[in-house]
Amino acid sequence: MAAFRFEALTDAGKTDSGVIEAESARHARSLVRARGLAPLTVEPISADAAGTAQSDGAPRLRGRKLSNTELALLTRQLASLLGAGLPLERALSALIEQAERNHVRDLLAGVRTDVLGGSTLAGALERRKRDFPDIYRALVAAGETSGDLGRVLDKLATYVEERNTLTSKVTMAFVYPAIVSTVALLVVIGLLTYVVPQVVAVFDQTKQKLPTLTLVMIWLSDFLRADGWLLGLGVAGIGYGFKRALGVESFRARFDAWVLTLPVMGRLVQSLNTARFASTLAILVGGGVPILRALEAGGRTVGNTAMRRDVDAAIVRVREGSSLARALAAGAKGDGGTKRGLFPPVLIHLMASGESTGNLPEMLERAATGQGDDLTRRTMVLTSLLEPALILLMGVIVLVIVLAVLLPIIEINQLVR
């Protein structure tokens, strides 16, 4: 049976839509009518999902994508259903019925159609790479091979949830400083483009010699009102050029390496990428994925190009027979310690301990937890210092503007006396 997406009219004249399984389009229309609906359109999901075909023949759903939250929820629900003893196709049917978004419903229906056609779950997900990342597909394949897909999916759901939580913590920590900075910038622009010109008009009538600070503020106000768009255009041009430059691999590698040397931001970036890499390796190795394939998938989760090059170099060394800890510690250059790796020593030592004791997944998970806690702690400290610093900076800027306005007034009062 194939999956069909339908749109139909209810007795009240409202439009209803959903997914239904049938042997043919005619059979699907009959099933829709059996529900008391008048079918408008009935289309096979496989054809609709094809949209614009990719080079590998996988379907692409017209720019839509499964969100990280939806992926975590679907994985947790599927793991629970399989753990309760339901067959895979029935579990997928239950998820289709519960899906709230059409894209999720269509995606799951396409996966179920492939599974009913004889494909493995990993094979069905392979045709939908845009929605299911490499680590996800690799672990599902390992779970099917081991015959314990439910347990593996449960671990995978925990991994996705923890990764989403870590990303959310970092993002939310910088939301307030970003809002404060935006409001401060708008207030300053408003003062310079509206308040200062009103006061300057009064000074022009007095023919008074103005203080240097006031003259500078008047010049800045005139510039923003007359040529402020040039400044905005220049900033936008610089941002666009920088974004294009980051697309060049050599520049991106140098920039990412430089970011790691920054006093505070460098440690944040290192901790974030290390936590992602270690947790990915832990779940993959613990799920029975071969170490080389796990390293390749883990390397794709590292956003810093310089650190990713260390992973690529480690893959080569492990393939040649080196231990994982020694390969990652050697870095991207040299073989005899000519360059120290960019991953923190605590990860290397825990890897070495895990390899020597045969308990590598647990040691990797411990390293990921430690780096995640370190990232959270450093982020909280940084934001707790950044917030008052931004407020203080805002106060200083407003104070300078107020002084630029008040100084001529004070001089006028002194002349009158």
UniProtKB/TrEMBL annotation:
Where is it located?
A: Cell inner membrane
Q: Which residues form the Type II secretion system protein GspF domain?
A: 75-197, 277-408
Q: Does the keyword Transmembrane apply?
A: yes
Question: Where does the UniProt entry say this protein principally localizes?
Answer: membrane
Gene Ontology CC: plasma membrane; type II protein secretion system complex
TM annotation in the entry: 173-196, 216-242, 385-410
Q: How does it sit in the membrane?
A: Multi-pass membrane protein
Single biological process term from Gene Ontology? protein secretion by the type II secretion system
Q: Keywords assigned by UniProt?
A: Cell inner membrane, Cell membrane, Membrane, Transmembrane, Transmembrane helix
Q: Looking at the keywords, is Secreted present?
A: no
> In this record, what's one Pfam family?
T2SSF
Query: Member of which family?
Result: Belongs to the GSP F family.
Instruction: Provide the protein name.
Output: Type II secretion system inner membrane protein GspF
Organism this protein belongs to: Derxia gummosa DSM 723
- Name the gene that codes for it: gspF
